[in-house]
Amino acid sequence: MSLLMSVLAASIAVASPAGGMTCPGVVVNAEFKSAAAGEDTRPAVTFDTKAIPVGSHVSVVERTGQDGTRVELRVQGVEANRTFGAHVHTNACGTVPDASGPHYQNLKDPKQPSTDPKYANARNEVWLDLTTDKEGDGGAESKVKWNFRAGEARSVVIHEHATETAPGRAGMAGERLACVDVPFK
Are strands 33-34 and 44-46 parallel, antiparallel or unpaired? Predict the structure, then answer.
């Protein structure tokens, strides 16, 4: 299924009686542009054009409901046969990787950057680690039992490697390779 068809299918999906999800709150479909020019290239910017080439595609779908939030991430045309970490971040993308701020946390760790598994885990953050196929296409989905606080979740960042879980390393996934702005509800 093509990326566009996936996004269209997701955007018209209806709630399942068991899941309690509503129609998507947000659907973003974008093409990555290079951050090297130093220009505002939103909504999607790549900092590593080998791993996330200019012209590759990304889609993010958010569904919310009384049972929580589900976020879906899909990429197309990125580096093949590779595992990436990905998370929701607190700030919008910028021309430098760190502009997107820390991971969004439902319960905020008072110590930042957060590497304590009590806070940096897939129940308290949105983790979207994915592995691409031979075409460079891949996707992930995360469901959490809470909703974002208004205005505090603003992007999805794709990282260098899978997310770590050990104490002192929890939540770490290496360099920030790309970012997509998402106006989460």
Answer: parallel
Q: Return the pLDDT at 7.
A: 40
pTM: 0.88
Give 3-state DSSP helix, strand, coil % of the chain, rounded to 5.
5, 35, 60
Q: Return left, alpha or beta for 101; rule: phi > 0 is left, psi -120 to 50 is alpha, else beta.
A: left
Question: Distance between terminal CA atoms of the chain?
Answer: 27
Reported as half-sphere exposure (CB side, CA atoms, 13 A), residue 180 has a value of 25
* 13: amino acid identity, one letter: A
SS (H, E, C) 108-130: CCCCCCCCCCCCCCCCCCCECCE
